[in-house]
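Morning F.,

Quick status update on the modeling queue. The single chain you submitted on Monday has been processed. Sequence for confirmation:
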Amino acid sequence: MADPLLETITLDTPDGPMAAFRAQPVGEPRGGVVVVQEAFGLTGHIGRVTQALASAGFVGVAPALFHRMEEQVFDYAGGFERLGPAMASLDAGTVTMDVDAALAELARLGQPSSRQGVIGFCMGGSVTLATAARVALGAAVTFYGGGIGQGRFGLPSGLESASSLRTPWLGLYGDLDAHIPVDDVERLRAVVAEAAVDAEVVRYATAHHGFHCDERPSFDAEASNDAWRRTLAFLGDHLR
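Structure tokens below.
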């Protein structure tokens, strides 16, 4: 069976139009999921994640958080030096605005908050955890999101967000991640153990940062496959 069609659509925000990926399943959706990009923008990887969600029965919408910038997508091999201005363009207000525009698109497509989820990668994983504390949705999944001890973009730290979760949350981390110390992940685990909603932290002993992205040298097929299996199960259990 062919992958679901990946469309590029335009969403309205108070700051003007924003591009987004969208993929819709065949038949009645099981729910809808916002995909929050990694630091490199709406890459091919983010597009494939959006399609994979649609293949599993969920509407996927991935907003372009760098839409205020001229350059919005960066190469994994040589784009690091140009990421600074794009990252500096983000703050808590703009990130929240853009995520909410994507959630509004899911609502427009008939998915109420209880059937809406959000998943994010890298910086998007940090945004996902903050979103899970800010609004009550069906489910949230963070892939290797940093900012656990100190918040990013003016958002609360991961530990602060974890202490006030309103949305069931799953966190997926690699032990060999040079950007996220295992000690921070374990501090996060201790906080979410007291959460009022279902919450879990999973660690992969051999995985580095970016282990789910098949375009990066750090891709780890075993960890990626297990993490995706857990992600779909978590969404399926909670988006009702």
